[in-house]
Every structure is written in structure tokens, then in C-alpha cells.
Amino acid sequence: MDRDVTLYQITSVMAERVFQKIDNFNKGRREDAGFYAISVSTPYRSYYALWRIFPDNTYSPLFIQSLAVTFNDAAERAFQYLQNCNVLLKVKDNTFFEPYYGLSEDIVAFGKYRGKRLAEVYYIDPNYVLWLAHKFEARNPRDKKLAVLAKAFATVHYETVIRKHHLPAGSRFIGQPGERLTDLHLEVLGTRLQLDAYKTTGYYVDQSVLAADAEW
């Protein structure tokens, strides 16, 4: 892992121990879908925070939540938050995130959470953010940007809330995107129906099935 970050109020020995913990945590995790990042504290910003960095600028760096005021505690809380996630965790210098602190496009401009930032809403009511991502009909450019950010949070929700199963390495080619799948023998490992609390009964924000090839 890249250690080229500026850390405050921590010895180099202690910092290296935390980096080693992160290296161990990352074993088996992947980076092809981007990564999660801990932003380090500064003399003017006392807390470490967790962000999601997406590949190819799919979305802007996404602030998820504050973690702690010490490097070790921040790493431990990140481990707990990402325990069901198979995406890599990195540490990035705070200068990487500075351009995004002053943005206001993540502020909700309507409804019961008017004036709150999307990360705060996701923390207290993730179902509302999932509704924004999948069911909300934006009527102006500002709301459209908010809906895009909500989709980024929906990705985080899927990655961190649904427990990932460690599947055998063996696999076989199935098909191309959009192709109809037939004659498959699958073992269902898990299902999730995410109810839409803002619609009548029978509507869902998300429906997902995790399955493995039963022939392997």
C-alpha cells in the first residue's frame, strides 16, 4: 500500500502497524471496481473519514461518514463497516479530497430531509436514499445530480450491507451482457427484497439474488 500520506500526532512505528493491519484486511479484496479510502486528519480537520472512489470517474469521490480522530480507531471502524465488502481499502492524503469539500450538489432540496447532505440522510435512513436512486423522478438539473449521487450510495449499500460469499475459484463462460440465460443449474446463496417504504405495498427499490454454479 502507498504510505505517501502526511499523518499527524502519530509515531511512524504506530502508523506502520496500522498500515500492516490494512494490508492484512485487503487480502483477497479487489480494486477493479475502484476502492474505499480513509482520508487522514489534518491540523484543521481533526477526524479521519471514509470515502468511496469509483473507477473511470463514474461518480465523484463519495464521502460516506466520519470515522474517528485517531488512525488506528479509524482503520478499525473502516474494517467493521467493510466487513461484508470485497473492495480494496486504501489511505489517501487529505489533499486528494479537498476539491470536494465545498460542493453542495449533495444537499437535499426537498422533502423531509430538506437541507441535509445525502451522506447524513443515508446514515439515518438508507431506504430513502435507495428510493432516490431507483424511484425518484427528478424534474430539474439539481435533482438529477442528486439522483446520480444516490445511485452511488446504492452501490455502497449493495457492497457493504449484503454479505458476500467466498465462492470457489472454478468458473465457466456463461454469456454476454443482455443475453438470455438458459439451462443453468444454480444454487441460491442469498436473496434480498428491499421494500420501498415510500410507495404502496408491492413496490421494491431493489431485488437481488446471489447464486453460484451448482455444477462446480
**What portion of residues is helical?**
25-40%
In the predicted model, the low-confidence regions spanning at least 5 consecutive residues are 166-171
Oligomer: single chain
Q: Gap between N and C termini, in Å?
A: 34 Å
> Rg, please?
19 Å
SSE class: alpha+beta
Report the total helices: 5
Q: Summarize the helix and strand pattern as letters.
A: HEEEHEHHHEE
Largest sheet, in brief, is:
4 strands, mixed
Number of strands: 6
Mean pLDDT, nearest integer? 82
Beta content comes to 15-25%
Shape: globular
> Numbering strands along the chain, what is their spatial order in the largest sheet?
3-2-1-4
Task: Please explain how this structure is put together.
This protein has 216 residues and is an alpha+beta fold. Among the domains are: 12-100, no CATH class; 111-161, no CATH class. 29% of the residues lie in helices and 19% in strands. It has 5 helices and 6 strands. Strands 3-2-1-4 form a 4-stranded mixed beta sheet. Helix 1 packs parallel to helix 2 (71-81), helix 3 packs across helix 4 (126-134) and helix 4 (126-134) packs across helix 5 (141-161). The longest helix has 21 residues, at 141-161. The radius of gyration is 19 Å and the shape is globular. Residues 166-171 have low confidence and may be disordered.
